[in-house]
Design goal:
The chain is an alpha/beta fold. Helices cover 37% and strands 22% of the residues.
Length: 326
């Protein structure tokens, strides 16, 4: 669960009804990085994960105790031998976890943080074990800082085309903590009822959707429109914006035609060449759900700066036909 969404859940809690578990220290190998968060509700249910297994269970039990006492805690859990997963040793590292009951002060801090994140602004929260355990660095309330936790706004994922592949992408991308938006000029394919809760929809001409959408360096845009002309309309409009990732679906022939056309229109050749087209990892996908998996595999590789990206780029270049090839 993205920290943006988790903080939104924190902000929605009544004071004293949930506790936040934050990975504050890591030594050796560990399943999650510093800053990973999990929210533990008073009834024992959780949102998010800090790694699963007995590490997570220890944190959950500590959080429930903190909710009874109203005091924060800090636990260290080794991840070797029986202390990790019974008979099966894992990882070989250890984690330190801050457990922070969500009181009125913490709730107020999260409400302010979420408001900034919703506007696309980065925030930094301080985790401490004093009177106030979660705050902005500018707030001086005497809490001892344990961890400064930078949080970026959730990445935006714009799907242009709400057909079968667009629907599969919206379902799967929502599970990957993107803020998903589906745009289409056809009202029936931009109907919110088609998509999971939380997916935004926009109905307008593709060029207008792209012009109005808040593109930035963390935006991902995928073109799965119903026809070649719509694809070209989308690609032209996207190339005028800033983004982290952009690509379009299509055969080798269609890919070559569109890339050749926008190159001939004077768009930056390097930006044209960098488009992910044909889109997706080459895994032999055929069904809409499989195609969505192939696209999102590539998207995740970009998001995580995978060392496989160079290989994927090379494979994509081999799948392109020269412009004008029959």
């Amino acid at each position: 669960m993205h920290p943006h969404a988790l903080l939104n859940a924190v902000a929605a809690q009544e004071p004293g009804h949930a506790a936040l578990a934050v990975v504050a220290e890591v030594s050796g190998s560990a399943p999650r990085h510093v800053g990973s968060m999990m929210l533990v509700m008073k009834d024992g249910t959780i949102l998010g994960t800090i790694g699963g297994g007995k590490v997570e269970e220890r944190a959950r039990q500590s959080a429930l105790l903190c909710l009874e006492t109203g005091k924060s805690d800090f636990i260290r859990v080794g991840m070797t031998g029986t202390d990790a997963l019974g008979e099966v040793p894992i990882c070989g590292g250890a984690v330190g976890i801050a457990i922070l009951p969500v009181g009125a002060t913490e709730k107020a801090s999260c409400v302010r943080a979420v408001a900034l994140l919703d506007r696309g602004e980065r925030v930094v929260l301080e985790i401490g074990l004093g009177a106030s355990s979660l705050r902005f660095p500018t707030e001086d309330d005497g809490a001892s800082a344990l961890l400064r936790c930078p949080i970026e706004p959730a990445e935006r994922f714009l799907i242009l085309g709400g057909g079968h592949v667009g629907l599969a992408l919206a379902r799967q991308a929502s599970e990957l903590d993107f803020r998903v938006c589906v745009g289409d000029f056809r009202p029936e394919y931009a109907d919110p009822e088609r998509f999971p809760a939380g997916v935004e929809t926009r109905c307008a001409a593709f060029a207008d959707i792209i012009a109005d959408y808040p593109f930035d360096a963390s935006t991902y845009a995928v073109v799965v429109s119903p026809d070649h002309l719509s694809d070209l309309e989308c690609v032209r409009a996207i190339l005028k914006r800033d983004y982290r990732y952009a690509g379009f679906i299509g055969s080798r022939r269609k890919t070559a035609m569109i890339l050749g056309q926008v190159a001939s229109e004077g768009f930056d050749p390097a930006k044209v060449d960098a488009l992910h087209a044909p889109i997706g990892a080459d895994i032999g996908a055929e069904t809409p759900a499989e195609i969505a998996v192939s696209i999102l595999a590539e998207v995740v590789a970009v998001r995580r700066n995978s060392p496989r990206l160079a290989e994927m780029d090379s494979q994509r270049a081999e799948r392109r036909l020269p412009a004008g090839h029959a």
